[in-house]
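Input set for joint prediction.
Command: fold jointly, output C-alpha cells.
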Amino acid sequence: MTWQFPKMTRRSFLKGTGASAFGVTLYRPEWIKLPGPTKDETADWGQTWKTREAYSICNYCSSFCSVRATIEERNGYERIVKLGGNPRSTLNGDKLCARGQSGFRQVYSVDRIKGPMIRVPGSKRGEWAFRSASWEEAYAYIASKAKAIKPYEWTVYGGWSTCSFYIPETFTFTLANEIPNLITSPTQNCVFNGHLGTNSLTGNYVVHGEVIEDYGNSDYIIACIGNASIGGVSTCRAVRFAEAKEKRTKVIVLDPRASETASKADEWLQVRPGSDLAFMLAMLRELMQGGHYHDTFVRVHSNLPFLCYRDEHNAWQLYRSANGEPAVLDAASGQLCFLPAFSNRNDADVAGQAVNPALQAPAGFAQDGKALVTVFQAQLAGLESYTPEWAEKITSIPAATIRRISAEFGAAKQPLLQPGWSGARYGNMQMLRRTQALIQGLVGGIDRAGGWLFGAEWRNQVAYMQNHIGKPGFPPMGRAGMPFVEWTAKRFGDPNNFSHGFPAWSVVHRDSIEKLSAHWAAMPTSTDVGFLPAVKGELKYKGKPYQAKAILLNGTNPMRDAREKVWKDALSDPALELVVVMDVMASDTGAYADVILPESSYLERDEPSIYGNGVNPDDMLITRNKAIEPLFDTQTLPDVFLKLTGVLSGDEHNYPRALERFTGLPADRLIALTEKFRAQKVRDPFNQALRQVRFEGKAEELHVAPDHLEKVLREQGVYPVAQAQELLDKGGMPWKRPLPTPSGRAEFFSTLYGDMRDTFGLYDNPFFDVLATYIPPRERANKAVDAPLEDDEFFFTFGMVPTVSHCSPNNDFLPLVGINAFRGDVYHGVWMHPDRAKHLGIRQGQKIELRNVVSGERTEASAYLTHLTREDTLFMYSGFGAKTPALRYASGVGTALNRITGDLTEPVSGGTSNQEYTVRVRAL
Amino acid sequence: MAHYAMVINVDTCVGCNACMAACSQANQTPVWDSSKFRTYVHDEEFKKDGRWVRQFFPRLCNQCDNPPCVTVCPTGATWKEPSGPVRVNPDVCMGCEACAMACPYDARYPIDREDVEQAKAYYGEEFLKRTHPAVDKCDFCWDRLQQGLEPACVETCVAHSRIFGDLDKPDDLVTKIVASGKAKTLLPELGTGPNVYYVDKLPEGLANE
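C-alpha cells >
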C-alpha cells in the first residue's frame, strides 16, 4: 500500500523564500494542512483519466478563502469535479465550508444565465419573461434606452463581486461615466452598519472584514451577535476558533437563541434581543473602574490621555493647539504638552521632548478658562450610571454574572472580544461594535497575538497610503480604510466633481428631508436610502427634478437582501426606464430586469487583479485562475464595463483613462493590450489587459519577473511574501506605525462621529456621541425594554445559516438544498419556544402568520418549536424564500426574511434596522 | 497493514455541514434526495445539567470490525478491506437491501436506477463513478485513500472535529485519542466493533496536533 497519512508536523509555507519556520506564535492551527499532496504524489493511481488543479478564491462570503479546484479530463471533456481549500494558503489551508465546497455547482447549474436576454414586449417586470439575444443586441437595446437618460439619472448597484473584488473597477466605471450614484451591497448592512463602529477606533475599512481574530492564542473569548463569522460560517475564522476550543479556551456567547456559535460556548447567555450594548457598556465600566487596561496601549497608543472639554453646546471637544495638535498632561511635570497631530505615539511632544501622558487630570485642571479632563476621565464619567445592575434590567443577565465575566476578561492574558460580523439589526449596532472595539483596545488586544490581527494586505495598503499620500503620482483610490470612505463620500457627494453638477441622489435626499426623520442618514454613502424617492420623482436639486431613470445591478439581489417592499416598488415603476442586471444565475431581482447580461462564473475566469490573501496575517498574494473555459456566452465584469462606457459616454477609452486617474493604472498600456488581445480573439480582452498590467506592477514591486509570478499563482495558488510575526514586529498598528485614524492613534474619542455631530449640529444625539454611550433598542417604540409583551407578541431575530451565503443564489445548489432539507424546519422554520407555542395552540411544523407590529408587513412561515430560543424571541435563518421559478430548487423553500423586516433605518449610515420591531403571531 | 479509524470530536463540530457537501461531491451521491447522503450532521437538542443545549452530531458508516451488512449480503457485493473500510461493488449488488436492514447504524441507503439517470445530468455522463444501482455507503473515501488523500469530510472539516488516521501507527492522533480511553463508539454492546470513535473533548495534551 502506497498510501501515507499526511504528516501533521509544522511545516514552513515559505519553502521557496528561504525564511525560517514560524516562531512560538502561530496565527493558525497546526492541523490545517500545509502544504497538501502535490501533483506528483497523486499522479498515477490506476485510473485512465487525467486530473489537473486550478487555484482560485471562493466567491461565497467575504472570507476570501483560498480554493483548489480539481478538474478531470475524460474523452476530450473537462469538468470540475471537486473544490477544496488550498493547502498552501495559511488562511484556510485545506478547509472549505459547505458553501465553498458546493461553489462549482454554480458552473453546472441548470438555472444559470447562459446568454444575454431581453424582456419580451408586453411582459411585466417580475414575470421572468425573456428572449435570448446576442451581446450586440443587448448593448444596442441599452444604448437606445440610454439616449434619453442623463448620467446622474443612472445608478450602479454593485453586489457580491464588487464588494470583495471589483472595487476599483466599479468605482471608476461610475466615475468614468459621471454617474454619482453607487449602491454597494452587502456593504450597507454587512459592513457599514456594524463595522463603522469598529472602524471609528481603528480607522479601518475593509469590506471583506477588517481583522481576523487570533482565537488560537487567546485565553478568553466573548462573542455577541457574532454567529456569522464562526458558526455562520467563515472558514478562516472557524478553524481558528476550533483551535481555541481544542485548547479549552473559555468561550462566552451572548445570543437570545442557541446559535451554532452559542452551542460551542462554555456559557451561553440568553441576552434580551437588542440589549447587548448595555452588557458591553457595563463591562467597559467594570474594566475601566477596575483598572483592567493595557497601560502602554492606552497611554502611549490611544487618545485616552488626550485632554478634552465641554464646548458651548455641552459637547466634548478635544483640546488642541492653534495648529490642531492634541494635548496631554505630562505625569512627571504636571505640564500640558502638545503632541504631534498625527502619530502612533504619545510619548514625545511636538518638540520631541519625552512625555509621560497621564490618564487622569487633577480635579479643577483648566487651560484658557476651559476645564480639562482626559478622554479616559470623560468616558469613565459617562459610564457612571451603567452599572451591572442597570444592565441586568435591560439584558436580563444577572449583574453578578456581568461583574464576574468582566473580571475574568480583565484578568485574562489575551482576552478576545469578537468584533462581530454583519451589522444592521439595531440602531445601536454601531455603538455596540464601537464599545466592543473600545473594550478590545482597552486591553491592548489589537494587532497583537491573541487579539484582533489585521490582515497583511490591509497593513500594506495603509503603509502605502501613509508613505505616498500628498506626493506626486498618488492616485486618489490609493487611500485605504476610513480615508478611502471619506474620499468616496466627498467624491460622490460633491456636485462640483461632475460636469452635470448633480451630486448623488442619496445626498440630495438627505438634505431635502427633515434631519433625523425616518429615512435620514448623515452618511448615506453607498446605501439605497433615497433611491425610492428618486425613482418616484420626489427629489429636486437646485429646483430641477432629480429622477432616477436607469439602474445597473451587478451580482446583487435586493429583492431578497434589501427591503422587498421598497425594491419591488422601485423596480416595478415605469419611471425607472431601464433595469439592467448582470449576474451568473437567475434571481428574484433578475426577474425585474429589462436586459440581463450573463457573467462568467468565478471558476471560469481569470481575475483582473492580484489580491492579498483576505484577512490572512501572513502576507500571501492570491488571484483567480480559470478552472475551465466558460461554458456559455458569458463575459467578465471589466469587459462589460468597458463596453458600457462606450455605450454611455460615447468613448470606451474613458474607462481606462478613469482607471489611470483614480487608481494609477497606465491607460495607454491598457488600451494597447486590449487591442492586442482583441486581435488575438481573446474572449475577455480588457480583463486580461488589466490582469497583465497588474501582474507587471506587482512583479516589479517584488523584483521578480511577471511570468514567474503568474506561474507560481497558476501552479500553487498563492505567492508567499512574508510571515505574520515579522510583519507585526515591523508594522503592527498602532504599536509600530499609525493607524489610519485621523490622529494615527486608537481613537476612543471618535473624531469620525465628532465630525458628523458638528457638521449636522447633533450635539445631544447619542448616535453621534464621541464617546461610548447608551442607545436604547427601538423594538418597542414607546415602551420600556422589559415591559410585558402581549400574549402573541415576540421579539424577532435572524441569523446566517452556514449553507447559504448572503446575496447569493446558492440556496439553489443541490447538495445545499439536500442538506437544508435534512435539517428541515431548523433551517426553514421560525424558532419558537414550546411553552409560548402551547399557549397559542401552535404545533410543531404548523403554518403560522407573522405580522410586523411596526410596519404591518405579514408573512407566513412554518413553526419550529425549540427550547433553544428565549420565550420572548422568535428566530429565523436568512437565505431562503426565493420566489422566481427560474431558481427551480430554491423557489418557494422557506420564508423570505425581507418580507417581514420593516423599513427602519439608523441615522448615521442608513443601515436597515431589521430587528427593531416586535411581531405578533397567529396559527393558520 | 493499516487500520483506518476516525475520531469525531463533538466539542468542536460547529454544525456547518462542510463534510456533507464535500462527501456528496467526492462520491457523487444522489444529492437530490436528502435521505441519500453518506454522512449526516444531526442537529440535536437536549437537557444537560438542567439546561437546554444544542449539539451537532456527525454520523457515518462505522466500518465495523464485525460488519452485519457484510454477513447478510447474499451476493458478496459488500466486503471488508483488510485495512478496515467496508466497501460495495455496485456491479455485484442486486439491491435486496438486506444490508441496510442489518445495519444498526442506518448507514446504508439505496441508489436506484432513477438516481443513476439523474447523476448523468448532474455529475456529467462522461464523469460518472457509478453506472449501476447499489446499496451505497461510506467507505472512508476509498478512492481518495488510494491517492494518498484523507476522506473528503475529514480534509475539509473546518473545526478539526473529524480526525482520521491509522490505529496501527502509534504517532497518529487517532491512535493517541483511542489509547487515552476517552473515546467511545456507538452501540458497542452489539459487538460490531466500530472504527468511528467519539470524544466529548480532545483529551488534555493532545490539542493542536
